[in-house]
Task: structure prediction
Amino acid sequence: MSEIEFIRATLDELAVFVRQKYAMRESLSMSAKVDPNDLVTEVDLAVQERIQERIEKAFPRDAIVGEENGMTGFPEGEDTRAWVIDPIDGTQNFVRGLFPAYGISLAFAIGGLPVAGGVAVPGNGQLFHAEKGNGAFRNGERIRVSGVDQISHVRAEVDFAGMVDRVATLRAFGPFVEEVGQVRCHCAAVIGLCSIATGDMDAYVHVTLNPWDYAAGMIIVQEAGGMVTRLDGAAINLFDGGQGVLGSNGKIHNELSALALKGTY
Ligand code: IPD
Ligand code: CA
Ligand code: CA
Result:
């Protein structure tokens, strides 16, 4: 089975599981991390464990990076094969029922560059996937970024993150918010990025994402014709320790980057 087939099969199966758990979300066990709003539920843990088990069987020599279970170390090496898991992105939306803005994210990277990725959105039965050079798809249908090429028409997500990063987000993206046409915040990086890939949104910014938040979304946006870089426009390696992320339809990426850099860091 190829990596992309593995991603699609795994996400298909886990989307069913997560949908069932969503229906009983009021009785799930959960705990908070450093930020009282940064939650981990039994579903986050179970989904990551199931994905890990499947990877260990199918690709036993590959590295695994995941948000939960202490799997947050970054592998090194130009040829290193690594899987990047966010079992539920948008956990707050999952827990309190902001339907359907949460997703399961699974990417495969070589040397820190995503080459295949998928995002399942269990709430509305959508499955996004992309493989380098082969385009991006939603439920098997090709998707493409929008043609919006004026800042005053751009619909952008400014992702406000958790409490720890809230003030940094305000300072960094004040000028950006003043200039773009429309501002949204789903607070689920996978939804923000996949929305660029479908053309529903045109840009996405975040001051501090971790690789598991955007690895799959990044290849999906790229294969839909868009761009995902650091805020200054620099190329991303998932494991380079950098954290700011700018995604866009690629039409005015430099202008968006310049706006993002006008803020205070
Ligand atoms: C969060 C989401 C959110 C972003 C946070 C992430 P989680 O992931 O991607 O959009 O603002 O920084 O931590 O915790 O729901 O997996
Ligand atoms: Ca996440
Ligand atoms: Ca998560």
